[in-house]
Amino acid sequence: MKKRNVLALALALMALPSVAYAQRDVKLEVNGKPVVSTPAAFISANRTMVPVRFVAEALDYQVLWNEGSRDILLTKMDFDTNKPVQAMVLKTEAAKALLIAKEDVDAFYGATTRLEFQPADVKEYMDRAEAVELETKPIIKENRTFIPLRAVVELFDQKISWDDGTSTVSIEGKVAKTDEEIAGAWMYSKLPAEYKKPPFKLIDSMLTDRDALAKKHIYAYDVIEDHPDHIVTVARYRLDLNASVFYKYDAAEDVWVRDPELNK
């Protein structure tokens, strides 16, 4: 990992008062946007622990939980090409991460997004992966997995800052994004795996009220089956970016409902 990132982290952590800080609630922002999770970021053994799913998804990583091995599988997507560009595995039973070799990323992603995925499907890629030691093992708290802040900086290669006045950790991605880009990337990361493969595509909604919705920071999307001779809309979603809430259209009742799966 780049030394400048480690130095930035060290300087940021030096600014954290150990006793008083431990009593505070820690707020988290990614690319200037609040990342709200329950439970929130917290302090453990003088280390700032942050929720891996919320941070990773805000930085355009797809997050998968392997119940069998209790591993966290993360894949960085390029949404222009719809191709994976980076992948890693966080081991909850050990203080280490596995960085998947670049030449194995595409196959790793293909294996992990299959409905019948089994841990053995990616064993060869994990065996070839680069092992990176972490400060401490991930912590599972209230069914959420947290990793040390240092790991976020080093593994995701991000910039970090600490605001002592507001007790806020801010993580800045490599590329500043518009609200539209953030919403689209987040929406894509939440889709079921089967909707991320041909003939399915995620597109901006074809509904006539989408511009009016966008003024309220509500972004509308359709999942379509894109065939050479016809297009079929299979699902419709909305994301309230300010409230961080996903909605799905219930065609039978002709209403928008809060989607329990997407809001986990």
From TrEMBL:
Q: Which UniProt keywords apply?
A: Signal
Q: Keyword Signal on this protein?
A: yes
Q: Supply the InterPro entries for this chain.
A: Cu_amine_oxidase-like_N (IPR012854), Mao_N_sf (IPR036582)
- Sorted alphabetically, which SUPFAM superfamilies does this protein's record hold? Copper amine oxidase, domain N (SSF55383)
- Keyword Signal tagged: yes
Which is an annotated Pfam family here?
Cu_amine_oxidN1
Query: Ranges for the Copper amine oxidase-like N-terminal domain?
Result: 30-78, 128-171
Q: Which residues form the signal peptide?
A: 1-22
The protein depicted here goes by the name: Copper amine oxidase N-terminal domain-containing protein
Instruction: Please give the organism.
Output: Aedoeadaptatus acetigenes
